tRNA-2-methylthio-N(6)-dimethylallyladenosine synthase (Absicoccus porci), 483 residues
Amino acid sequence: MKIKSDWILPDLKAAQKRTKKAVPYINHFELEDYVRYIGKGKKYYISTFGCQANQRDSETLAGILDAMNFEPSESPEKADVVLINTCAVRQNAEEKVLGQVGNLKRVYRENKDLVIGVCGCMAQEEKLVHTIIDKYPQVRLMFGTHNIQDLPNMLYKVMYQHERLIQIYSKEGEVYENLPVHRFGNNKAWVNIMYGCDKFCTYCIVPYTRGKERSRTMDEILKEVNELKNDGYKEITLLGQNVNAYGKDLSADYDFATLLAKVAETEIPRIRFMTSHPWDFSDAMIDAIAKYDNIMPFVHLPMQSGDTDVLKKMGRRYTAESYKTLFDKIKNRIPGVAISTDIIVGFPNETDEQFQHTLDMVNYCKFDNCFTFIYSPREGTPAAKMEDTIPMEEKSKRLAILNQTWNKYALEKNKQYEGKVVKVLVDGPSKKDPSTFTGYSPENKIINFTGENIKAGDFVDVYIERAKTFSMDGKALCYNKNK
Ligand code: 5AD
Ligand code: SF4
Protein backbone atom coordinates (compact mmCIF):
# COMPACT_ATOMS: atom_id res chain seq x y z
CA MET A 1 0.00 0.00 0.00
CA LYS A 2 1.29 3.41 -0.94
CA ILE A 3 2.01 5.81 1.89
CA LYS A 4 0.71 9.27 1.05
CA SER A 5 3.00 12.25 1.40
CA ASP A 6 0.80 14.10 3.91
CA TRP A 7 0.47 11.13 6.24
CA ILE A 8 2.31 11.20 9.57
CA LEU A 9 3.25 7.75 10.85
CA PRO A 10 4.30 6.81 14.39
CA ASP A 11 7.92 6.27 15.37
CA LEU A 12 8.56 4.39 18.65
CA LYS A 13 12.18 5.61 18.87
CA ALA A 14 11.05 9.22 18.78
CA ALA A 15 8.27 8.43 21.27
CA GLN A 16 10.85 7.11 23.74
CA LYS A 17 12.85 10.33 23.91
CA ARG A 18 12.35 12.65 26.85
CA THR A 19 13.35 16.31 27.00
CA LYS A 20 13.16 18.78 29.84
CA LYS A 21 11.50 21.31 27.53
CA ALA A 22 8.45 22.91 29.16
CA VAL A 23 5.14 21.88 27.65
CA PRO A 24 2.95 24.74 26.42
CA TYR A 25 -0.58 25.01 27.81
CA ILE A 26 -3.40 25.94 25.44
CA ASN A 27 -6.47 27.32 27.14
CA HIS A 28 -8.57 28.15 24.20
CA PHE A 29 -10.56 25.85 21.93
CA GLU A 30 -12.83 27.16 19.23
CA LEU A 31 -14.28 25.50 16.18
CA GLU A 32 -13.87 27.29 12.90
CA ASP A 33 -17.01 27.88 10.84
CA TYR A 34 -16.08 25.37 8.11
CA VAL A 35 -16.27 22.49 10.59
CA ARG A 36 -18.96 23.64 13.00
CA TYR A 37 -21.93 22.26 11.10
CA ILE A 38 -20.52 19.27 9.26
CA GLY A 39 -22.22 16.93 11.72
CA LYS A 40 -25.75 18.33 11.15
CA GLY A 41 -28.12 15.40 10.60
CA LYS A 42 -25.27 12.93 11.13
CA LYS A 43 -24.47 10.51 13.92
CA TYR A 44 -21.39 9.15 15.66
CA TYR A 45 -20.56 6.01 17.55
CA ILE A 46 -17.51 5.62 19.80
CA SER A 47 -16.17 2.31 20.98
CA THR A 48 -13.66 2.45 23.84
CA PHE A 49 -11.11 -0.16 24.88
CA GLY A 50 -8.67 -0.12 27.79
CA CYS A 51 -8.11 2.10 30.78
CA GLN A 52 -9.82 5.11 32.34
CA ALA A 53 -7.54 7.51 30.44
CA ASN A 54 -9.09 6.17 27.26
CA GLN A 55 -12.60 6.49 28.65
CA ARG A 56 -11.89 10.11 29.46
CA ASP A 57 -10.40 10.69 25.99
CA SER A 58 -13.55 9.25 24.45
CA GLU A 59 -15.57 11.79 26.42
CA THR A 60 -13.47 14.51 24.79
CA LEU A 61 -13.96 12.97 21.33
CA ALA A 62 -17.72 12.89 21.97
CA GLY A 63 -17.60 16.49 23.22
CA ILE A 64 -15.85 17.66 20.05
CA LEU A 65 -18.31 15.73 17.85
CA ASP A 66 -21.28 17.26 19.75
CA ALA A 67 -19.76 20.70 19.15
CA MET A 68 -19.65 19.86 15.43
CA ASN A 69 -23.39 19.15 15.66
CA PHE A 70 -23.18 15.37 15.36
CA GLU A 71 -25.54 13.31 17.47
CA PRO A 72 -24.71 10.10 19.30
CA SER A 73 -25.89 6.86 17.72
CA GLU A 74 -26.76 3.72 19.65
CA SER A 75 -25.08 1.43 17.11
CA PRO A 76 -22.27 1.60 14.54
CA GLU A 77 -24.73 0.51 11.81
CA LYS A 78 -26.71 3.73 12.20
CA ALA A 79 -23.66 6.00 12.46
CA ASP A 80 -21.87 8.19 9.91
CA VAL A 81 -18.67 8.30 11.95
CA VAL A 82 -17.39 5.38 14.02
CA LEU A 83 -14.34 5.96 16.21
CA ILE A 84 -12.53 3.08 17.87
CA ASN A 85 -10.42 4.29 20.77
CA THR A 86 -7.88 1.55 21.28
CA CYS A 87 -5.62 0.01 23.93
CA ALA A 88 -2.12 -1.38 23.31
CA VAL A 89 -1.20 -2.65 26.74
CA ARG A 90 -1.54 -6.34 25.86
CA GLN A 91 -1.85 -8.38 22.67
CA ASN A 92 -5.38 -9.59 23.46
CA ALA A 93 -6.64 -5.99 23.74
CA GLU A 94 -5.29 -5.44 20.23
CA GLU A 95 -6.91 -8.59 18.90
CA LYS A 96 -10.30 -7.45 20.19
CA VAL A 97 -9.89 -4.13 18.37
CA LEU A 98 -8.91 -5.79 15.10
CA GLY A 99 -11.92 -8.11 15.47
CA GLN A 100 -14.21 -5.12 15.76
CA VAL A 101 -12.59 -3.31 12.84
CA GLY A 102 -13.02 -6.53 10.81
CA ASN A 103 -16.73 -6.70 11.68
CA LEU A 104 -17.23 -3.14 10.49
CA LYS A 105 -16.17 -4.09 6.96
CA ARG A 106 -19.72 -5.26 6.25
CA VAL A 107 -21.18 -1.95 7.47
CA TYR A 108 -18.69 -0.03 5.31
CA ARG A 109 -19.58 -2.12 2.24
CA GLU A 110 -23.18 -0.96 2.59
CA ASN A 111 -22.29 2.66 3.28
CA LYS A 112 -19.15 3.90 1.55
CA ASP A 113 -19.57 7.35 3.15
CA LEU A 114 -19.03 5.83 6.57
CA VAL A 115 -15.90 7.14 8.28
CA ILE A 116 -14.27 4.48 10.42
CA GLY A 117 -11.51 5.96 12.54
CA VAL A 118 -8.96 4.18 14.74
CA CYS A 119 -7.36 6.26 17.49
CA GLY A 120 -5.79 5.81 20.92
CA CYS A 121 -2.75 3.81 22.01
CA MET A 122 -2.69 1.22 19.21
CA ALA A 123 -2.45 4.01 16.67
CA GLN A 124 0.90 4.92 18.23
CA GLU A 125 2.37 1.53 17.27
CA GLU A 126 4.32 1.35 14.02
CA LYS A 127 3.56 -2.26 13.12
CA LEU A 128 -0.11 -2.03 13.87
CA VAL A 129 -0.55 1.07 11.74
CA HIS A 130 1.03 -0.72 8.78
CA THR A 131 -1.27 -3.70 9.32
CA ILE A 132 -4.29 -1.42 9.20
CA ILE A 133 -3.02 0.45 6.16
CA ASP A 134 -2.49 -2.84 4.28
CA LYS A 135 -5.30 -5.06 5.48
CA TYR A 136 -8.17 -2.87 6.65
CA PRO A 137 -9.09 -0.46 3.82
CA GLN A 138 -12.36 0.30 5.61
CA VAL A 139 -10.37 2.37 8.14
CA ARG A 140 -10.25 5.84 6.63
CA LEU A 141 -8.85 7.80 9.54
CA MET A 142 -6.12 7.10 12.06
CA PHE A 143 -4.89 9.49 14.72
CA GLY A 144 -3.05 9.03 18.00
CA THR A 145 -3.21 10.15 21.59
CA HIS A 146 -1.48 13.49 21.01
CA ASN A 147 -3.80 15.15 18.49
CA ILE A 148 -7.37 14.52 19.59
CA GLN A 149 -7.94 18.26 19.37
CA ASP A 150 -7.38 18.12 15.57
CA LEU A 151 -10.40 15.84 15.11
CA PRO A 152 -12.57 18.52 13.39
CA ASN A 153 -10.01 19.26 10.71
CA MET A 154 -9.12 15.60 10.18
CA LEU A 155 -12.78 14.63 9.85
CA TYR A 156 -13.39 17.46 7.42
CA LYS A 157 -10.61 16.20 5.17
CA VAL A 158 -11.82 12.61 5.27
CA MET A 159 -15.48 13.50 4.73
CA TYR A 160 -15.15 16.12 2.03
CA GLN A 161 -12.00 15.25 0.23
CA HIS A 162 -12.73 11.52 0.43
CA GLU A 163 -9.24 10.97 1.70
CA ARG A 164 -7.77 8.32 3.80
CA LEU A 165 -5.86 10.20 6.45
CA ILE A 166 -3.24 9.08 8.91
CA GLN A 167 -1.95 11.67 11.33
CA ILE A 168 -0.08 10.23 14.28
CA TYR A 169 2.37 12.32 16.23
CA SER A 170 5.01 10.44 18.18
CA LYS A 171 5.75 13.24 20.58
CA GLU A 172 3.38 14.85 23.00
CA GLY A 173 2.57 18.43 22.16
CA GLU A 174 0.69 20.93 24.25
CA VAL A 175 -1.55 20.30 27.23
CA TYR A 176 -5.03 21.32 26.11
CA GLU A 177 -7.45 22.79 28.60
CA ASN A 178 -11.08 23.53 27.88
CA LEU A 179 -11.60 20.94 25.18
CA PRO A 180 -15.32 20.15 24.98
CA VAL A 181 -16.41 17.14 27.01
CA HIS A 182 -19.47 14.93 26.83
CA ARG A 183 -19.41 13.01 30.11
CA PHE A 184 -20.83 9.52 29.88
CA GLY A 185 -21.79 9.38 33.58
CA ASN A 186 -24.13 11.71 35.48
CA ASN A 187 -22.85 11.02 38.98
CA LYS A 188 -19.27 9.87 38.59
CA ALA A 189 -16.64 11.69 36.54
CA TRP A 190 -13.02 11.24 35.50
CA VAL A 191 -10.64 14.13 36.07
CA ASN A 192 -7.25 14.01 34.38
CA ILE A 193 -4.55 15.40 36.62
CA MET A 194 -1.62 14.47 34.41
CA TYR A 195 -0.81 12.79 31.14
CA GLY A 196 1.93 10.35 30.14
CA CYS A 197 4.44 8.30 32.08
CA ASP A 198 8.21 8.50 32.53
CA LYS A 199 8.69 5.31 34.54
CA PHE A 200 9.50 3.04 31.57
CA CYS A 201 8.79 -0.25 33.33
CA THR A 202 10.45 -2.66 30.91
CA TYR A 203 7.26 -4.50 29.87
CA CYS A 204 5.08 -1.45 29.36
CA ILE A 205 4.18 0.33 26.14
CA VAL A 206 2.41 3.24 27.86
CA PRO A 207 5.41 5.63 28.10
CA TYR A 208 5.72 5.28 24.29
CA THR A 209 2.05 5.67 23.47
CA ARG A 210 1.21 8.47 25.90
CA GLY A 211 4.40 10.51 26.03
CA LYS A 212 6.19 12.23 28.84
CA GLU A 213 4.66 13.16 32.18
CA ARG A 214 2.75 16.42 31.93
CA SER A 215 0.74 17.71 34.89
CA ARG A 216 -2.25 19.98 34.67
CA THR A 217 -2.09 22.96 36.98
CA MET A 218 -3.77 22.71 40.34
CA ASP A 219 -6.00 25.70 39.50
CA GLU A 220 -7.37 24.01 36.38
CA ILE A 221 -8.01 20.74 38.23
CA LEU A 222 -9.77 22.49 41.12
CA LYS A 223 -11.85 24.52 38.68
CA GLU A 224 -13.00 21.29 37.00
CA VAL A 225 -13.77 19.58 40.33
CA ASN A 226 -15.78 22.57 41.54
CA GLU A 227 -17.75 22.66 38.30
CA LEU A 228 -18.48 18.94 38.62
CA LYS A 229 -19.60 19.43 42.20
CA ASN A 230 -21.90 22.29 41.19
CA ASP A 231 -23.31 20.11 38.40
CA GLY A 232 -24.29 17.53 41.02
CA TYR A 233 -21.54 14.96 40.50
CA LYS A 234 -21.04 12.77 43.58
CA GLU A 235 -17.73 11.13 42.82
CA ILE A 236 -14.60 12.01 40.91
CA THR A 237 -11.59 9.88 40.09
CA LEU A 238 -8.31 11.71 39.65
CA LEU A 239 -6.50 10.11 36.73
CA GLY A 240 -2.86 9.68 35.87
CA GLN A 241 -0.67 6.74 34.82
CA ASN A 242 1.22 7.40 38.03
CA VAL A 243 -0.49 10.03 40.14
CA ASN A 244 2.37 10.11 42.69
CA ALA A 245 4.44 11.95 40.10
CA TYR A 246 1.85 14.75 39.92
CA GLY A 247 3.39 18.21 39.88
CA LYS A 248 7.01 17.07 39.61
CA ASP A 249 7.26 18.38 36.06
CA LEU A 250 5.88 21.78 37.04
CA SER A 251 8.09 24.29 38.74
CA ALA A 252 5.48 24.47 41.47
CA ASP A 253 5.78 23.84 45.16
CA TYR A 254 2.96 21.33 45.31
CA ASP A 255 2.67 17.59 44.89
CA PHE A 256 -0.05 14.94 44.77
CA ALA A 257 -0.62 15.00 48.54
CA THR A 258 -1.27 18.77 48.37
CA LEU A 259 -3.59 18.26 45.42
CA LEU A 260 -5.50 15.53 47.27
CA ALA A 261 -6.03 17.83 50.25
CA LYS A 262 -7.17 20.73 48.06
CA VAL A 263 -9.57 18.51 46.12
CA ALA A 264 -10.94 17.13 49.41
CA GLU A 265 -11.58 20.69 50.59
CA THR A 266 -13.96 21.28 47.65
CA GLU A 267 -16.23 18.91 49.64
CA ILE A 268 -17.19 16.87 46.62
CA PRO A 269 -18.66 13.76 48.31
CA ARG A 270 -16.33 11.05 47.00
CA ILE A 271 -12.76 11.18 45.70
CA ARG A 272 -10.76 8.32 44.22
CA PHE A 273 -7.50 8.25 42.32
CA MET A 274 -5.82 5.91 39.81
CA THR A 275 -3.03 4.71 39.61
CA SER A 276 -0.35 5.08 42.24
CA HIS A 277 3.09 3.51 41.95
CA PRO A 278 4.54 1.86 45.08
CA TRP A 279 7.88 3.56 44.45
CA ASP A 280 7.12 7.16 45.42
CA PHE A 281 3.95 6.72 47.45
CA SER A 282 4.61 9.36 50.10
CA ASP A 283 3.66 9.47 53.78
CA ALA A 284 1.93 12.77 53.05
CA MET A 285 -0.36 10.95 50.58
CA ILE A 286 -1.24 8.37 53.23
CA ASP A 287 -1.93 11.14 55.74
CA ALA A 288 -4.22 12.96 53.31
CA ILE A 289 -6.23 9.80 52.56
CA ALA A 290 -6.53 9.10 56.30
CA LYS A 291 -7.45 12.67 57.18
CA TYR A 292 -10.26 13.47 54.75
CA ASP A 293 -13.52 11.52 54.93
CA ASN A 294 -14.31 12.25 51.31
CA ILE A 295 -11.12 10.58 50.05
CA MET A 296 -12.23 6.98 49.78
CA PRO A 297 -10.34 4.33 51.80
CA PHE A 298 -9.23 2.47 48.73
CA VAL A 299 -5.79 2.24 47.14
CA HIS A 300 -4.88 0.49 43.91
CA LEU A 301 -1.23 -0.41 44.39
CA PRO A 302 0.14 -2.41 41.45
CA MET A 303 2.65 -4.97 42.72
CA GLN A 304 3.35 -6.72 39.37
CA SER A 305 5.53 -9.38 41.03
CA GLY A 306 6.41 -10.53 44.54
CA ASP A 307 10.00 -11.36 43.60
CA THR A 308 12.72 -8.74 43.99
CA ASP A 309 14.81 -9.99 41.05
CA VAL A 310 11.82 -9.97 38.72
CA LEU A 311 10.86 -6.50 39.98
CA LYS A 312 14.37 -5.36 39.13
CA LYS A 313 14.11 -6.78 35.62
CA MET A 314 10.76 -5.04 35.31
CA GLY A 315 12.38 -1.73 36.27
CA ARG A 316 9.91 -1.22 39.11
CA ARG A 317 12.28 0.56 41.56
CA TYR A 318 11.10 -1.30 44.70
CA THR A 319 11.75 -4.66 46.32
CA ALA A 320 9.32 -7.25 47.62
CA GLU A 321 10.27 -6.15 51.15
CA SER A 322 9.69 -2.45 50.52
CA TYR A 323 6.33 -3.22 48.91
CA LYS A 324 5.35 -5.10 52.07
CA THR A 325 6.49 -2.22 54.28
CA LEU A 326 4.43 0.26 52.28
CA PHE A 327 1.45 -2.09 52.23
CA ASP A 328 1.56 -2.43 56.03
CA LYS A 329 1.93 1.31 56.50
CA ILE A 330 -1.14 2.03 54.37
CA LYS A 331 -3.14 -0.68 56.19
CA ASN A 332 -2.12 0.60 59.62
CA ARG A 333 -2.64 4.28 58.98
CA ILE A 334 -5.91 4.29 57.00
CA PRO A 335 -8.72 2.64 58.97
CA GLY A 336 -10.71 0.09 56.94
CA VAL A 337 -8.68 0.66 53.78
CA ALA A 338 -9.09 -1.78 50.89
CA ILE A 339 -6.09 -2.46 48.67
CA SER A 340 -6.15 -3.90 45.17
CA THR A 341 -3.29 -4.72 42.87
CA ASP A 342 -2.09 -5.68 39.37
CA ILE A 343 0.05 -8.79 38.90
CA ILE A 344 1.85 -10.07 35.81
CA VAL A 345 2.75 -13.77 35.61
CA GLY A 346 5.21 -15.28 33.16
CA PHE A 347 7.56 -12.33 32.83
CA PRO A 348 10.50 -13.53 30.65
CA ASN A 349 12.17 -16.52 32.31
CA GLU A 350 10.25 -16.16 35.57
CA THR A 351 11.17 -19.29 37.55
CA ASP A 352 8.85 -21.46 39.63
CA GLU A 353 10.51 -20.07 42.73
CA GLN A 354 10.00 -16.47 41.61
CA PHE A 355 6.35 -17.20 40.89
CA GLN A 356 6.10 -18.78 44.35
CA HIS A 357 7.33 -15.46 45.80
CA THR A 358 4.40 -13.74 44.09
CA LEU A 359 2.03 -16.26 45.69
CA ASP A 360 3.74 -15.68 49.06
CA MET A 361 3.04 -11.97 48.73
CA VAL A 362 -0.60 -12.59 47.85
CA ASN A 363 -0.84 -14.86 50.90
CA TYR A 364 0.68 -12.08 53.00
CA CYS A 365 -1.25 -9.10 51.64
CA LYS A 366 -4.62 -10.83 51.10
CA PHE A 367 -5.65 -8.21 48.55
CA ASP A 368 -9.25 -7.11 48.26
CA ASN A 369 -9.03 -7.37 44.50
CA CYS A 370 -6.39 -8.36 41.94
CA PHE A 371 -6.09 -7.74 38.22
CA THR A 372 -3.94 -10.55 36.91
CA PHE A 373 -2.31 -10.84 33.50
CA ILE A 374 -0.05 -13.13 31.53
CA TYR A 375 2.96 -11.14 30.35
CA SER A 376 2.47 -9.97 26.79
CA PRO A 377 5.56 -8.83 24.84
CA ARG A 378 5.15 -5.33 23.41
CA GLU A 379 7.34 -4.47 20.47
CA GLY A 380 9.78 -1.67 21.21
CA THR A 381 9.95 -2.30 24.98
CA PRO A 382 13.12 -3.72 26.61
CA ALA A 383 11.35 -6.82 27.98
CA ALA A 384 10.28 -7.85 24.48
CA LYS A 385 13.96 -8.48 23.71
CA MET A 386 14.57 -10.62 26.81
CA GLU A 387 15.02 -14.36 26.40
CA ASP A 388 11.93 -16.28 27.48
CA THR A 389 11.89 -20.05 27.69
CA ILE A 390 8.74 -20.43 29.79
CA PRO A 391 6.03 -22.16 27.71
CA MET A 392 2.59 -20.56 27.46
CA GLU A 393 0.93 -23.60 29.10
CA GLU A 394 3.08 -23.02 32.18
CA LYS A 395 2.14 -19.32 32.24
CA SER A 396 -1.56 -20.19 31.95
CA LYS A 397 -1.19 -22.68 34.79
CA ARG A 398 0.42 -20.02 36.98
CA LEU A 399 -2.35 -17.55 36.17
CA ALA A 400 -4.98 -20.12 37.24
CA ILE A 401 -3.15 -20.83 40.52
CA LEU A 402 -2.76 -17.12 41.20
CA ASN A 403 -6.43 -16.46 40.52
CA GLN A 404 -7.51 -19.29 42.78
CA THR A 405 -5.30 -17.89 45.54
CA TRP A 406 -6.46 -14.30 45.44
CA ASN A 407 -10.12 -15.24 44.91
CA LYS A 408 -10.03 -17.09 48.21
CA TYR A 409 -8.86 -13.98 50.07
CA ALA A 410 -11.26 -11.65 48.23
CA LEU A 411 -14.15 -13.81 49.43
CA GLU A 412 -12.68 -13.93 52.94
CA LYS A 413 -12.39 -10.12 52.96
CA ASN A 414 -15.93 -9.64 51.70
CA LYS A 415 -17.26 -12.07 54.33
CA GLN A 416 -16.12 -9.60 56.99
CA TYR A 417 -18.81 -7.21 55.72
CA GLU A 418 -21.68 -9.65 56.32
CA GLY A 419 -24.06 -8.24 58.90
CA LYS A 420 -22.58 -4.75 58.54
CA VAL A 421 -23.97 -1.60 56.93
CA VAL A 422 -22.11 0.14 54.11
CA LYS A 423 -22.82 3.42 52.35
CA VAL A 424 -23.39 2.83 48.66
CA LEU A 425 -23.33 5.36 45.85
CA VAL A 426 -25.98 4.01 43.49
CA ASP A 427 -25.09 3.46 39.82
CA GLY A 428 -28.65 2.39 38.93
CA PRO A 429 -30.62 -0.80 38.38
CA SER A 430 -28.44 -3.88 38.07
CA LYS A 431 -27.87 -5.00 34.46
CA LYS A 432 -28.25 -8.67 35.40
CA ASP A 433 -31.40 -8.23 37.45
CA PRO A 434 -33.24 -4.91 36.93
CA SER A 435 -35.36 -5.49 40.04
CA THR A 436 -32.22 -4.84 42.12
CA PHE A 437 -29.79 -1.92 42.28
CA THR A 438 -26.05 -1.76 42.04
CA GLY A 439 -23.42 0.63 43.34
CA TYR A 440 -20.08 0.90 45.10
CA SER A 441 -19.05 1.06 48.75
CA PRO A 442 -16.31 3.51 49.85
CA GLU A 443 -13.82 0.60 49.61
CA ASN A 444 -14.78 0.15 45.95
CA LYS A 445 -16.75 -3.05 46.54
CA ILE A 446 -19.62 -3.76 44.17
CA ILE A 447 -22.85 -3.96 46.14
CA ASN A 448 -26.08 -5.36 44.69
CA PHE A 449 -29.14 -4.67 46.78
CA THR A 450 -32.89 -4.45 46.96
CA GLY A 451 -34.83 -1.36 48.00
CA GLU A 452 -37.48 1.12 47.03
CA ASN A 453 -37.54 4.70 45.77
CA ILE A 454 -33.91 4.54 44.80
CA LYS A 455 -32.23 6.13 41.83
CA ALA A 456 -28.77 6.56 40.36
CA GLY A 457 -26.70 9.08 42.31
CA ASP A 458 -28.34 8.40 45.69
CA PHE A 459 -26.31 7.44 48.72
CA VAL A 460 -27.97 4.49 50.41
CA ASP A 461 -27.13 2.58 53.60
CA VAL A 462 -27.12 -1.09 52.67
CA TYR A 463 -27.19 -4.00 55.11
CA ILE A 464 -24.91 -6.73 53.74
CA GLU A 465 -26.56 -10.14 53.78
CA ARG A 466 -24.25 -12.23 51.62
CA ALA A 467 -20.66 -11.84 50.47
CA LYS A 468 -19.39 -13.27 47.19
CA THR A 469 -15.93 -13.16 45.61
CA PHE A 470 -16.53 -10.19 43.32
CA SER A 471 -19.54 -8.51 44.91
CA MET A 472 -21.91 -8.49 47.88
CA ASP A 473 -25.69 -8.69 48.19
CA GLY A 474 -27.78 -6.71 50.65
CA LYS A 475 -30.87 -4.62 51.29
CA ALA A 476 -31.29 -0.87 51.58
CA LEU A 477 -31.89 0.31 55.13
CA CYS A 478 -32.71 3.94 54.73
CA TYR A 479 -32.67 6.58 52.11
CA ASN A 480 -30.16 9.36 52.77
CA LYS A 481 -30.41 11.34 49.60
CA ASN A 482 -27.39 13.54 48.81
CA LYS A 483 -25.47 12.84 51.98
N1 5AD B 1 1.89 -7.62 29.65
C1 5AD B 1 1.00 -7.94 30.61
N2 5AD B 1 0.46 -7.04 31.45
C2 5AD B 1 0.84 -5.75 31.30
N3 5AD B 1 0.50 -4.64 31.97
C3 5AD B 1 1.15 -3.59 31.43
N4 5AD B 1 1.93 -4.01 30.42
C4 5AD B 1 1.76 -5.35 30.32
C5 5AD B 1 2.30 -6.34 29.47
N5 5AD B 1 3.19 -6.04 28.53
C6 5AD B 1 -0.40 -4.66 33.12
C7 5AD B 1 0.30 -4.16 34.38
C8 5AD B 1 -0.31 -2.80 34.58
C9 5AD B 1 -1.70 -3.01 34.03
C10 5AD B 1 -2.43 -1.78 33.68
O1 5AD B 1 -1.48 -3.80 32.88
O2 5AD B 1 -0.04 -5.02 35.45
O3 5AD B 1 -0.31 -2.40 35.92
FE1 SF4 C 1 3.49 1.35 32.50
FE2 SF4 C 1 5.08 1.39 34.68
FE3 SF4 C 1 4.16 3.73 33.64
FE4 SF4 C 1 2.47 2.07 34.89
S1 SF4 C 1 4.22 3.15 35.84
S2 SF4 C 1 2.11 3.11 32.89
S3 SF4 C 1 3.26 0.04 34.33
S4 SF4 C 1 5.55 2.29 32.65
Remarks:
- The first helix runs from residue 12 to 16.
- Residues 461 and 478 are 6 Å apart (CA to CA).
